[in-house]
Amino acid sequence: MIGFHAKNIRKSFGGRIVLDLDLHFSGTGIHIILGSNGCGKSTLLKLLAGLIQPDKGKIVPQPGQGAPVLVPKPDGLFNSSVYKNVAYGLKIHKISGMARSERIDDVLQAVSLTHLQKSNALTLSSGEKQRLCMAMALAVQPDVILLDEPTSSLDPHNAAQLEQIILQMRQGEMMVILVTHNISQAKRLADTVTFMNSDTQAAQYSSEAFFKTFDRDGLDGYI
Amino acid sequence: MLIDTLSRAMLLIVHCDKDLLEIVFLSLRVTCTSIFIATLFGLSIALLLEILQVPGKAIAVSFLNTLTGLPPVVVGLVLYMLFSRTGPLGFLDLLYSPSAMIIAQTVLATPIVAALSHASIRAGGKCVRETAMGLGATKFQALVAVFVDARYAIMAAVAAAFGRVVAEVGAVLLVGGNIAHHTRVMTTAIAMEADKGDFELAIALGIILLSLSFMVNIIFYFSQHKGEKK
């Protein structure tokens, strides 16, 4: 079983508490975190990824579970080729030789970027950059993958393409935790929804129960 | 007269005049050595500024930026006083030696390398570090990734520092003394030959200096261009 217990975690920046919650995430599938700006969604993701540490409480992963991978933001792509960007995570995880090349080829094919593998990552379009970010994370083959508003800057066509890739992850027995503002997207993708009302209030639902409980108009008032 | 002097200067270059080559090679030796040392120091300072989270960091960065505009003649004067026989470092016997010139140019170049490298690392560093750590890198591996990602900007910083010190005259003249066959470099030789009214060698050295600056600027331009994020 894959999962996390964010146990009574508290995080503050500059004396302001941005997150003070106790949450569980368990099981494969797509777990959506919905909430308004500033309610601590991105902070929660960074805590889960281990990029920052909580002031209080701790993140407890299930025993034997691999470290989660946070899908990079397009601004954080390396100034090198598409191929080398994907190779970075594999190098970090000490995967070399044929295994590395095969994985890179596979993920580039999965995100339709094989033809651009020699191009500099910074010269790609927004949609291509976002797909490359997904490839970088997927190449590592993590148990848990964390995404922070991956489609926020994409046009509908590219957003749909990315959603397809995310849906394929569900079949790969992965736990996907995705932060979004997009209610329609949440409806299309979610297995469970964590709804953060504020930095201290969050409720968790199955996707079906959530969209039964909250109608779209009600949600628009929050998000 | 100008054309005549120019053609004689070109002949000096074409015939690889012995004195001319000696001056050019000493200039390159002094500048390249100082740039090498300044790169080591400058990158270390940039690294420290990036990883240290201490109060007063903003003041340290501002101070470093101020040092990029150090007047060479002031640096030369301070080092002259330090290295002179009665100065606190007089026992090292460095005054009027290529070593003193290397130290002077290192003092001038280090803040440039450090400030420009740190600025570029700071600009893109946070995002790149998050990418690396998000994919499982340790803090050290992420820091390496940040430096590797900023390589073109660092190259541009080194090229800028090279351009500044290779054309510098005040500091090397004060601590080097422009001694023939010992501490005479391109800039000090140009100043002296022009004073003597012997423009032939001065123009030949000027052409070489200008060519060097042009080459460095070409590197600077392409490094910056490659380092630009779209």
Sum this structure up briefly:
The complex is a heterodimer of chains A (223) and B (230). Chain A contains eight helices and nine strands.
Characteristics of this structure?
heterodimer, A: 223 residues, alpha/beta, Rossmann fold, 2 domains, six-stranded mixed β-sheet, three-stranded antiparallel β-sheet, 8 helices, 9 strands, 38% helix, globular, B: 230 residues, mainly alpha, MetI-like fold, 10 helices, 79% helix
Describe the structure in your own words.
In chain A, 38% of the residues lie in helices and 26% in strands. By secondary structure, chain A is α/β, with parallel strands linked by helices. The mean pLDDT of chain A is 88. Chain A starts with a strand and ends with a helix. With 230 residues, chain B is an all-alpha fold. In chain B, 79% of the residues lie in helices and 0% in strands. The relative contact order of chain B is 0.16. The mean pLDDT of chain B is 91. The A-B interface holds A 49-51, 67, 69-73, 75-80, 88-89, 92-93, 122-123, 136-137, 140, 146 and B 124, 127-128, 130-137, 141, 145, 148-149, 151-152, 226-227, 229-230.
Strand content of the residues of chain A, in percent? Answer: 25-35%
In total, the number of domains of chain B comes to 1
Please tally the helical runs of chain A, counting DSSP H or I stretches of 4 or more residues. Answer: 8
Per CATH, what is the topology of the largest domain in chain A?
Rossmann fold
* Low-pLDDT segments, ≥5 res of chain B: none
Q: Calculate the mean pLDDT score of chain B and round it.
A: 91
Give the strand content of chain B: under 5%
Task: Give the total of beta strands of chain A.
Answer: 9
For the largest interface, the chains and their residue counts are: A-B, 25 and 21 residues
Main β sheet profile of chain B: none
CATH superfamily name of the largest domain in chain A? P-loop containing nucleotide triphosphate hydrolases
Strand and helix map with partners:
The complex is a heterodimer of chains A (223) and B (230).
Chain A: E1 3-13, E2 16-26, E3 29-35, H1 41-49, E4 56-61, E5 69-70, H2 82-92, H3 97-110, H4 126-139, E6 144-148, H5 156-171, E7 175-180, H6 183-189, E8 192-196, E9 202-206, H7 207-213, H8 216-222
Parallel strand pairs in A: 3-7, 3-8, 5-6, 6-7
Antiparallel strand pairs in A: 1-2, 1-4, 8-9
Helix pairs in contact in A: 2-3, 2-4, 3-4, 4-5
Chain B: H1 2-14, H2 18-51, H3 57-67, H4 72-83, H5 98-134, H6 139-149, H7 151-166, H8 170-176, H9 186-196, H10 199-227
